[in-house]
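Most newcomers find our protein records easier to grasp once they have seen one. There is nothing in a record beyond a sequence line and a structure line. Getting from the letters to the tokens is the skill we practise here. An example says more than a description, so a record of this kind follows:
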Amino acid sequence: MKGLNLMIKRLIDILGSIIGIILISPIIIIISILIKVSSSGPVFFRQRRLGKNGQVFKIIKFRTMIVDAEKKGDGLTVKNESDNRITNVGRFLRATSLDELPQLFNVIRGQMSLVGPRPPVTYFPYKGYENYPHWAKKRFMMNPGVTGLTQVTVRNSVSWNERIEVDNNYIDNFNVVLDIKILLRTIFKLFKNENIYMSKK
């Protein structure tokens, strides 16, 4: 049964991403132009992330911060929307999660799924897949997602280990119906900006 659910999940990923890219292509073009004319730097932000079984891939997002933002200020931590590394356009994209749209290309490539645990950077919260505790590696048993159970529940309001526990819960209870519920909840939450910034925990 799980194998069938995984097959249906991949089919939904491919069809959903292709249809999504076609439908939102005008939005992608507009956002790209706004980013380019409002700040110096590339339109897209690429970053090494950990995917299924700890494999490294490059995630694609719209750039919402100044170039090399990770090397300035608070590094990976973005405490609130007043962080001066965030561009004016980026502030809107983050609040609406529109910066995530280019990840549909990662989904088509098979590096991500529409629904799954969020892919962490290679060096945080643990340095490399091999340094994750055994219990936490469960979250890497499936492709990471553009959205997921963590994003529609706790988002960034809790510590990383607490988020990993939510991810593990998703892995344990995965089925296509759960994915559809998460996708629907994501749509409802799209224009709500609660919990988008990192907790102090």
Summary: Residues 2-189 form one domain. The longest helix spans residues 2-38. The CA atoms of residues 54 and 129 lie 5 Å apart.
